[in-house]
Amino acid sequence: MSVRKLKPITPAQRFRVVNGFDPITTDKPEKSLLAPKKRTGGRNNKGKMTSRHIGGGHKKRYRIIDFKRNKFGLEAEVKSIEYDPNRSAFIALSEYADGEKRYIIAQSGLQVGQKICSGEGVSPELGNALLLSEIPLGTIISCIELVPGRGAVIARSAGAFAQLMARDGKFATVKMPSGETRMVLVTCMATIGVVSNTDHQLLVSGKAGRSRWLGRRPRTRPVAMNPVDHPMGGGEGRASGGHPRSRNGIPAKGFRTRSKTKSSNKFIIERRKK
User: Fold this and answer.
1) For residues 104 and 142, is the Cβ–Cβ distance under 8 A?
2) DSSP conformation letters of 226-251
3) For 149-178, what is each residue's pLDDT tens digit?
């Protein structure tokens, strides 16, 4: 992974830091795994805006990703590492022995030509997907299921990883990317390795226009609003806005909003650090 700092030939490029895209091997996606992606502009089925700061942006096509890795015992070869506009991580095109092609989230270090596999009895090597019951303790993992067979939901973004800490009965203890320690069923699947594009956090857009390309509209600071628009608005002169809170008055920066009666609370051993 690498990043490039551009020469300041324009004001926008003075602070621009771009991805080196070193692992990318092709710019042509697999046509059979593409799907149309409709834009909402933040509006619901009645045309009413329900999510602010959404609209515009470059047209995209969705890449169908295999989060379940449910083709067990069949080896696949990595054909290419590709860019995906819908996520921060890179994706890998894998072709199975029976000819079927699938996209998976690429792990850091995954190479073209490498063989990957999933299921029981598979060796815990980079890119392989195994049950938590078969992964050695202390292993760095990503793309973790929370419900067996439902597909990966944890540690899927660029540079994300978790660590398998312990096993006790039907539960495994996993340290999440947030720092939270949580129990997950040992019948859930996880992939060995760190998610690719670890330098994603170092990128600098350089200008507001790039946010517009990504479909993000301008956001007004709450302290610049009027009292009728936001709890932090109004006041004489330049006011600090008081205690930070949301548009609905819910406190931010330290206020815990998680329900105390949530059913999954019993699986959390240690909350994430503030």
Assistant:
1) no
2) -TTT-TT---SSS---SS-B-TTS-B
3) 999 999 999 999 999 999 999 999 999 999
Place of tokens 């792990």: 107
- Which structure tokens are listed for 47? 């045309």
Which CATH superfamily groups domain 3-201+263-270?
Answer: Nucleic acid-binding proteins (2.40.50.140)
Q: 10 Å Cβ neighbour count for 84?
A: 18
Helices (H), the chain: 208-213
How many C-beta atoms lie closer than 10 Å to residue 237's C-beta? 4
8 A C-beta contact, residue 152 and residue 191: yes
Residues in the chain: 274
**Confidence class for position 141, pLDDT limits 50, 70, 90:** very high
> Per-residue pLDDT tens for 204-237?
999 999 999 999 999 999 999 999 999 999 999 9
**Residue 238 has which token pair?**
């330049």
Q: Can you read off the two tokens belonging to residue 57?
A: 């942006």
Region of 189 (left: φ > 0; alpha: ψ -120 to 50; beta: rest) is beta
Model pTM score: 0.92
